[in-house]
Sequence to fold (728 residues):
Amino acid sequence: MHRTPVILALCSVFTIGAAAVEVPRIGWEEPFDQPTAWIAAAAKPTAGTPMASAAAAGGVLTLTTVCGALFPGTTHPEWPEWPAEGGRSEFTEIAVTTDVEVDLDVHRYLCVRVPAKSAYAFLKINGVGTKVLYTTGMHAQDLSELGLKGRQHLTLSLSFLNTSGALSLDWLRLVRSLDDQERAALIGPGMVLREERLGAHPYHGLEAMNARAGRPCHAEPLGGEWCVYTEPDTGAEIWKMTASPENDCRVSFNRDGSAFTVSGRAANGFHIWDWPSRSFKLMVGGLSDASPMFSATEPASMIVAENTWFTRPHRRNDLFRCDFRSGAKEPLASFETDAPWRVQELTGSGSGKLLFGFRETPEVWLIDPAIADISRRARQIILPKRLKASHLCHGDQAIAWYNCYTYEGWQMDLATGELVLAHTATVGHGAGGPERSIGGYGPDMKLLVENDLTPQTEADADRVRIFANYRQKVEVDYGGISRDGRWMVTDGTEGDLYAQHLMFAIGDPASVLHICHHNTSRNEWSTNTYSTPSPDATKLAWISDQFDDGDVYLAITGRPAAPTAVSANRTGAAVRLIWTPPVAREISGYRIYRSQQSGCGYRAVTVPPVVATEFTDTAAPAGPLFYAVAMVEPSGLESRFSAEAGVDAADRPRTFFLAAESMSWSAPARLAFRTAGGMVLVLAAVVLGQQGGLREEVRLAASHYRLDASSLLVSPDELAVLKRLPQT
Fold:
């Protein structure tokens, strides 16, 4: 059906005779039935390269972007797939101005409907950015919250990242009030991050170390490179791990956090810091570009690639599985190639499969270590376009890559060869995770995006979600999402977050931990500010040159998770304990503590960690005893105590601790104990976010209380322990 652009009354009430007429709900609408102005604007943008196409069908306008170059102006005549007119820009902006005036004090709500989307697109109204195009579907925003008020002519500007993707628009409206659908799609004003206003010290107040800076380094005994100190501004505990005369770089952790790589200090190879032996281990070999990587399935294994040259460019690429603890080295796969050597890319997946790609060529090799015949493990694949940043995706069923040195991403199904254009929903540096990533949408919104996104319709709008909607500019750099999905780890680049390592709670992005200032003077590949979390995000690794060349530092972000469901029972004179391990990867064992009083006086029964999830205390004294179990990481970090388990202590006073560590802005947790005399005593833990938790202690005889858990906000396992206590 043909729809005519609607321009409706702009005053709130006007009178015809004696009758008052209510202002229409819709004050202005663009239905895109005859979008002549938009099609003309797409051909003559206000900035960047003209759109590839602009067309309307059935009242829906579709704007398609060109393939933008990563380095506009470069040419590659030998590459048939390189964008014509090599100067195609990264971004394109088009603008349309209406010929009517709208009263934004009356019709203040902007509403849009996006049926399909496969490109980053951003809408401005009179130069002010909005958030309504972040994903498909219907969205609304209150323009008065953006400072747009009064009678104004409208200039609507659309900015695109040139990825060859497209945006479809059904309509744009300004309305006086929202209907039920629009109200459900309203994007709120956003939250404000509290400013910490932390001071920065150029060398963390370490005067003696600063005085030594620049002096020649010499060989140190085991542990001689270490330095442990407290960051003066945030109070974080920092471990300085290296003191090399060269730049240490490329820190990455293995799957259980028991080791991390250190590159740069060896002429032929790289080092691995091994926590169990507390020593560096030299691994000889490896390539400078297809860097050695930890196995996704075996903590002590690394995948190392090497080249054997015949007649250039002909060579053999050999991949080995190396055990850095035993020194064992076994062939993993081998293949020969004539691909020109620009940059070699080696990536892995959670299943253990590998992808070896040759940048600036269409050639990749898929390597499956599960195939028994080593001669058949490597399979050559020729992509339809030259590659950059190739990797496996969608459960290893497809390959994703960028058309080399452009913003155009592609995915190819390995079984069918079907090609799908990738969808880039965010711009700028982001934080990658195992299933989703976080990136920027405008200066004040962060999106949680499904990895390896493909074109969206309204049916799958939630593949792109709002992670954080702020009222202020929040600028961060590259980062990562912890493997447990609880934290985004990154570093700030502007304002109150500047030059700091940060942790944003995934469940509550208003909660931001300011870990420490990174004190890195230059953001280069050898000394960059990017932070790398350990598998459980209890530590952040980064490179700082605050004293000499780049060294490896670790910031301790918090205690590891504690064991749960601890039980203790007498077996003769001994006591047998059983517990459930926490959901964690960095587990080297458990330490058992014992006391004859509840809540205090604990002493370690086992100093070396126990590997099993049970323990028999053969030296247990007679009488009431209390036990707690702590998990110990390979690094030596110890968790908080588990919930207490008692033996022969049914009639003894018990101490309960409830600590607020969840970083959530929720109502106070409350434990109510009613005494025999009718008086109610309360144990409360008030969640204070960055300020920590208020902890109070109540001691009562076990026969004189009952538990009221109706408003208890603790984990289910802690609640289960409390419910097992005697009640009257």
Observations:
- The chain has a mean pLDDT of 84.
- The two ends are 72 Å apart (CA to CA).
- Helices lie at 36-43, 180-184, 207-212, 716-723.
